[in-house]
Amino acid sequence: MPRTIQGVIFSDLGQASKFMALNWVQESLRERLGFAPYPATLNVRPSTPQDVRLWEEIQREIAALPLAPLKSGFCSADLYLVSLTRLVGSKETLRGAVLLPAVVDYPKDKIEIVTQVRVKDALSVKDGDSLVLEFDD
């Protein structure tokens, strides 16, 4: 049964785009996910404390796809397959994955999403807009 949380889009430091543009990252993600990812992530923050708890539950209970670093000096990560839909307006859905880096003190309320396209353009959303994230068991 799918698990659903709501989140709000926000801009962060922009550091993920440098990581996402690396050839080995693109190749690894393409191999694991079956698509060439857009070279940036979309940041989403769970909307409510309940959504934060559900995100933590998803991390414990849904099997992630591991992403091992191919270059030294980089961390590993887990990938959680997800579907994204606007909360209001068009019900167009994008498939992608949450990229969760294995970093000490990584924010519990930050969800980084990779897809084939720039999500803000594809779903006509901006910072402050809400998305529905649906995870399959």
Give an account of the 3D structure.
By secondary structure, the protein is α+β, with helices and mostly antiparallel strands. Helix content is 24%, strand content 34%. The protein has helices at 16-20, 23-33, 49-61, 119-122, and strands spanning 3-10, 42-46, 65-67, 77-86, 93-101, 111-115, 130-135. Strands 1-2-6-5-4-7 form a six-stranded antiparallel beta barrel. The longest helix has 13 residues, at 49-61.
Characteristics of this structure?
7 strands; alpha+beta; 6-stranded antiparallel barrel; globular; 137 residues
Q: What are the low-pLDDT stretches, counting only 5+ consecutive residues below 50?
A: none
Number of helices: 4
Q: What's the count of strands?
A: 7
Enumerate the strands of the largest sheet in spatial order, edge to edge or round the barrel.
Answer: 1-2-6-5-4-7
Radius of gyration, CA atoms, in whole angstroms: 14 Å
> What is the straight-line distance between the termini?
6 Å
Helix-strand pattern: EHHEHEEEEHE
Provide the structure class: alpha+beta
Question: Which percent range fits the helix content?
Answer: 10-25%
Share in β-strands: 25-35%
Profile the largest sheet.
6 strands, antiparallel, barrel
Shape designation: globular
Mean pLDDT equals: 88
